[in-house]
Amino acid sequence: MKEIRHQPIAPTRAQWLAPGAAIDAHRHDDHQLVHAARGVLAVTTPAGAWIAPANRAIWVPAGTVHAHQAHGALELHTVGLPATDNPLGLDEPVVLGVGPLLRELILACTRVPHDDGPEHGRLRAVLVDQLRAAPRQPVHLPAPTSPRLQEVCEILAADPADHRTLAALGRQVGASDRTLSRLFRADLGMTFPQWRTQLRLHHALVLLADGTPVTAVAHLCGWSSASAFIDVFRRAFGHTPGAHQGR
Is 32 left (phi over 0), alpha (psi -120 to 50) or beta? Predict the structure, then answer.
């Protein structure tokens, strides 16, 4: 993220982004709810990346420096909310499950973004209530700060199908598996297998958005079989990869 733009008011709007398009690093004084009705959205901050297919949304707290990345043709809906109202009580992004009602509320609010009438105000109030009840999804890929851990994570990001153990990776970067294991927990708040699974899921969403067949995605992301990939994907996102490709 090279340039940080300051946009005092987080916009409420709907827009289309072409595959691969990006919105550079910026921040808002307001909170922002970001939802991809089609395609896959990635939000990146200095702390890591959050990625969401069409049945998810990403909450971006006020003041957070973030960038957007489109994977597939992206129908992007953003809803700005005052910084004085933080229904989630969080100071970092989070991925939220989007049920049918919350989805329709997001679409309704962005359909007429500049409506300040009482009906629109009631819609936004219900949307805030739904945000409080929305399930939080553990699909954050944290970014390492330790130089040795950065090396390991860069190796795996370049090839998520790399099956090497932490000990083997440690030999390449000059660190023991015990040291790296400790760094994963201390720096990223998760174990090495957990982080690698998150990385593979993020990579899988990008490939699926680009139209890559499910079997090929499973292979490219390091799963032993398509069925193993489908099982992990369904547990993480609530639908099969095939259903996701049809969105």
Answer: beta
